[in-house]
């Protein structure tokens, strides 16, 4: 059996066992996970069976690609429709970026670490060529206002508490934000915006890498 066939079998097994049987019911999400090869987003020394395990995997620079079930669960909370504009904070490996793009979203993805961003961009565009994606290398702690408003915002790293200003970047009509919040004990939180009102819900306990707040560059005072 060639490795592409083995990967397709492992991918189908992952989708059935770790997603569908675990309560992910959205067909568009399940189909996207069937399409995107997770092995292309993890270091090449990773075995195929490990690439399709239901666990996070290291991607270098102390970062991880999230567990497939958690990515799928967050996407199901986000309830995005094809054609929606989505802000993804923390591109990382680009795996989730590829999933979002293959579901037909317009993706704006922001990553703090230039090396990761560059690698992710190559991997994503090889899998979903021609997708509508803007890759931004910058601090996304407080979102990315130049492309706001967004129908959906998904954050792949955990701030200790809710960052300022994210909800203002949501589409006022049912824009949705999903993120992990907390330090050691984190929870997934979803926020839906209805004009000036916010509907906040807490969900699963999770463990994400921290959303990093880089120090502000201090301009030298002119003497
Ligand atoms: N969804 C990603 C998960 C990546 S892990 C995937 O599928 O691989 C979280 C990522 O968030 C890391 O790459 C980390 O560098 C990035 N990150 C952390 N703080 C950030 C910030 N303030 N702005 C942008 N990206 C940040």
Key traits:
about 220 residues; alpha/beta; Rossmann fold; seven-stranded mixed beta sheet; two-stranded antiparallel ribbon; 6 helices; about 30% helix; binds S-adenosyl-L-homocysteine
Q: Care to describe what's here?
A:
There is one protein chain. With 223 residues, the chain is α/β, with parallel strands linked by helices. It has a single domain (3-222), classed as Vaccinia Virus protein VP39 (Rossmann fold, 3-Layer(aba) Sandwich), CATH 3.40.50. It contains six helices and nine strands; from the N terminus they run H-H-H-E-E-H-E-H-E-H-E-E-E-E-E. The chain has helices spanning 3-19, 27-35, 48-51, 68-78, 95-102, 114-127, and strands at residues 57-60, 63-65, 85-89, 106-111, 133-137, 152-155, 173-181, 186-194, 197-206. The strands form two sheets. The protein has a seven-stranded mixed beta sheet with strand order 5-4-3-6-7-8-9. A two-stranded antiparallel ribbon has the order 1-2. A hairpin with a 2-residue loop joins strand 8 and strand 9. Helix 1 (3-19) packs antiparallel against helix 2. The protein is globular and about 55 Å long. The mean pLDDT is 95. The structure holds S-adenosyl-L-homocysteine.
Q: Brief overview, please?
A:
With 223 residues, the protein is α/β, with parallel strands linked by helices.
